[in-house]
Amino acid sequence: MADFKLLHDLLAPNSSKIVLLVMDGVGGLPRELNGPTELEFANTPNLDRLAVEGNLGLATPVRAGIAPGSGPGHLALFGYDSVEYQIGRGVLESLGINFDLKPTDVAARGNFCTVDAEGSIIDRRAGRIPTSKCVELVNKLRPITLPGVELFVEPVQDYRFCLVLRGEGLNGEIEDTDPQRKAPPLPARAKTAAAQHTADLVNQWIAQAREILKNESPANALTLRGFAIDPALPKFPDVYKLRSACVAVYPMYKGVSKLVGMDIVQFEGGKPEDEFKAVADNWDKYDFFFIHIKYTDSRGEDGDFEAKAKVIEGVDAALPQLLALKPDVLIVTGDHSTPAVMKSHSWHPLPVLLWAPGMTRRDKCKAFGETEAIKGALGHFPSTDLMQFALAYSKRLQKFGA
Question: Per-residue pLDDT tens for 275-293?
């Protein structure tokens, strides 16, 4: 984890600009022996040029061999040890849609899914139903009531929604109900005795929701995961003394940014060029921009190798728009790997590109990809060290000691 106290003592005022560009799930694997990964297969002349001019390395988000969720992966990029600061997806989704989450609320992220006649999940995302269908289904679930608690069901995006319980004596220590395979949804199980009452309430809600959804198609069931209460993390702008902004399309990534105290930039559109324009429109207001690209991860989870490469190519094509702003430090990486051949998040270390004109030593890397990153000058490091690199290369850290 970044040493917040040490960094705070060493921070120096500076007008330099830092951009962290995260292509979600960018890390991949070859689809044939000794072949290219998705990143290496993609045509990326701009990223390749920056790789030659800057430095590459590999980052591990959590620990060796551990496949992270998106929440832990992003917290690590921001310098927080996600093992120490464990946050459920429900909090991130709720904050991401600007839900007024109270300190004692228990929030869970929901997925509408498809089950077969035997009740086993055959599509964890219900065919990626559109948000309009999600809103329709959420409205059908809102009339559910439970004794002693206030319930909120809110649409998020596509097949995602959030469930929030508000009342006395609630506890978020509850297991996910998504089995992550072809099997019936699991019941909500309490991890601790203190959470048993909350788990019982959740199971009552699930039973009523199941009856409401059973004749729907394709979203005829649901799962819940990431039960949590807001953990009150140290705030990013205070820790790093950076005016910080998030530019993202998907609510969950706005949520994790809001959780650590970043401002959320509002903008129209969902393409890389729309996000880069939003950065340009707010360039003078902030020192640090976190930009999130979602569909690298989505296409990896779909198992579509070439579609994931196309998303990367789209980011590369729009990159001159971002470079025209002349950031002092540009870091390009991901929060975790999502190899298309696995159709899931994986434990593989992430390629990192750090471009800081005049501040990097030349290494032997000739392109941005996993194979090149293995031999890069940044080496192999924990993702939690990334912000220390960003601060150092942007000349925002003083010398340590006499």
Answer: 999 999 999 999 999 999 9
